[in-house]
User: Which sequence fits this backbone?
């Protein structure tokens, strides 16, 4: 599932880096760095990730999201 | 009244509405518990909706807010966000202004 999340987000947001974590394959955390986030509210950024994950969200019980525009920010 | 109208009416009736799993006293999910606890620190009145009691609301709020997870916090009918965003706002001391 971890690879699926990473691939899905990075495909939907070209140039992004997604780093998903889990220790129980049920609760997930993902850090996403994407140029598309710049100038967007937190809500909009998270919505972009939920939109990218789409149907996958039904298989993910809990997802904590941390977003960044650029690596060094 | 269908579910979407029910949700809209609820949001118009209360300044702050938290859709959560369980209740503030007995949250049934870590993320819901976290948001309820954070709100508790601000001593603001908020209307908590236990989505576990009504599956139509539980699914309907995801459509209404265009947000696939619970909890969801609304202020003046506007979605503020889920657990991550509320926690981030709280940590950056931006939540008080949002809740005002």
Assistant:
């Amino acid at each position: 599932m971890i690879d699926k999340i990473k691939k899905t987000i990075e495909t939907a947001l070209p140039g992004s880096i997604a780093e998903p974590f889990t220790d129980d394959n049920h609760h997930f955390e993902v850090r996403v760095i994407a140029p598309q986030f710049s100038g967007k509210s937190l809500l909009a950024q998270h919505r972009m990730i939920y939109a990218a994950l789409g149907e996958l969200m039904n298989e993910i019980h809990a997802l904590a999201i941390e977003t960044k525009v650029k690596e060094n920010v | 009244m269908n579910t979407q109208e029910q949700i809209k009416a609820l949001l118009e009736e209360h300044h702050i509405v938290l859709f959560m799993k369980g209740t503030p006293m007995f949250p049934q999910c870590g993320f819901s518990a976290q948001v309820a606890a954070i709100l508790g620190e601000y001593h603001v009145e908020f209307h908590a909706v236990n989505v576990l009691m009504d599956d139509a609301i539980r699914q309907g709020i995801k459509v209404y807010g265009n947000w696939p997870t619970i909890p969801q916090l609304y202020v003046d009918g506007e979605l503020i966000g889920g657990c991550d965003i509320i926690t981030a706002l709280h940590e950056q001391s931006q939540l008080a202004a949002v809740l005002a």
